[in-house]
Specification:
By secondary structure, this protein is an alpha/beta fold. The protein is built from eleven helices and six strands. The structure holds cobalamin (B12).
Length: about 300
């Protein structure tokens, strides 16, 4: 089928929809321009077809649409609503034949976009400046794509980073705070303003010394070993963005280790995870909690499994 024929069919369907009042936001139809050559529109304007049809859909991620029951003719509508309200999982979404219906598909795509954005974006430089955090990089040199494909490189500080840390950081502090992008820049942006001051004040109140905080770009948890080798702190606290879930990108973790060094594994580390406001571990509470764990690590000279065994 050629383009002219296709346009004719689409325009005829749109005319019928307009006549039936099934679509709104109609402007007067202009000269017959083929539908596959849309007239340039201002970026902020909603997309329009050449028939003046405005595609103006409600935001599929709003709470009421996210949790709307979409099963056609449910046997027990009240039970269905109760089930949907009992979980954040995508249930009761209905179907169009064997496929998702449009509303579910749009919601899924909207949520997926949040995840992609959190993964591929860098932490806002203004936020890092606000806390005086300078940036060093791991051995990832090929951008986010390489970061995602090569976790091993994200666990090694680059030679330049090691030189910068040797130059700028206080050595052998009691607590070294480090901020890493990990798998979500949004997680750091959502929590740093609250957790950073709590940790700083908590460390000072405990009479401990705090190292020079900094930011690592393209950062994985395993980089804690290189931080330990470079700075030799008692405890490393690594604030890092967790792998985002669909539509949930603001969840942060603090991974912790006592005197981390080359060759150590996650068995030597501890983690406080799911840090976010409204539903997760509150960042203020998490800040106080990790300072307590840091003290416990110093008292027992251990972290991870060894700390568990020492405190049993
Ligand atoms: C991905 C993941 C894994 C993957 C890690 C593989 C990988 N290379 O990415 C796998 C499936 C192997 C895994 C295993 C485990 N995990 Co896990 N994992 C996660 C998840 C979903 C995301 C972590 C993330 O984004 N990290 C940040 C990125 C940047 O880190 P990364 O450098 O890419 O990857 C490292 C970390 O993910 C770390 N890691 C992953 N899980 C754990 C658990 C602990 C206790 C530690 C210290 C480190 C650690 O291992 C990776 C390699 O170093 C979280 C959920 C969450 N909300 O965070 C749970 C989570 C962190 N895991 C958890 C647990 C319990 C485990 C296991 C102990 C389960 C078990 N009983 O075997 C094991 C421990 C394995 C280990 N590494 O020693 C819990 C921790 C709870 C807690 N506070 O102690 C979480 C929070 C899930 C949960 N809600 O229960 N995990």
């Amino acid at each position: 089928m050629d383009d002219a024929k296709l346009n004719e069919i689409v325009e005829s369907v749109v005319r019928q929809l307009i006549a039936a009042g099934a679509v709104s936001g109609i402007q007067p139809a202009g000269a017959a321009v083929p539908l596959n050559q849309p007239a340039p529109a201002p970026i902020s304007a909603p997309p329009t077809s050449n028939l003046g049809l405005t595609i103006d859909l409600p935001d599929p991620t709003s709470e009421d649409l996210r949790y709307k029951a979409r099963v056609k003719n449910p046997c027990d509508p009240a039970a269905l609503t109760e089930l949907i309200n009992s979980t954040t999982a995508r249930i009761g979404v209905g179907r169009a034949g064997p496929r998702y219906n449009t509303a579910s598909l749009l919601l899924f795509q909207g949520d997926h976009a949040v995840t992609q954005d959190a993964l591929y974006r860098d932490i806002d430089q203004k936020l890092l400046d606000e806390f005086g955090l300078f940036t060093v990089q791991t051995n990832v040199t090929g951008g986010k794509e390489q970061f995602l494909l090569r976790p091993d490189l994200g666990r090694q500080l680059s030679d330049e980073a090691k030189r910068t840390l040797a130059d700028k950081c206080i050595k052998k502090p009691n607590v070294q705070l480090v901020v890493g992008d990990g798998l979500s820049a949004a997680a750091i942006e959502a929590n740093l303003r609250q957790i950073f001051p709590v940790i700083k004040q908590g460390v000072q109140a405990a009479g401990l010394t705090m190292g020079t905080p900094f930011h690592i770009k393209y950062c994985r948890v395993g980089v804690m070993n290189d931080i330990g080798d470079a700075i030799q702190p008692d405890v490393v606290l690594l604030l890092i963005g967790e792998r985002p879930g669909l539509g949930r990108a603001e969840s942060m973790s603090v991974y912790m280790g006592f005197k981390p060094k080359s060759g150590e594994t996650d068995a030597d580390r501890d983690v406080v995870c799911n840090i976010f406001e409204n539903g997760g571990t509150n960042p203020l509470e998490a800040g106080a909690f990790v300072v307590q764990i840091a003290q416990k690590m110093r008292q027992n000279q251990a972290s991870g499994v060894k700390l568990k065994l020492a405190t049993q």
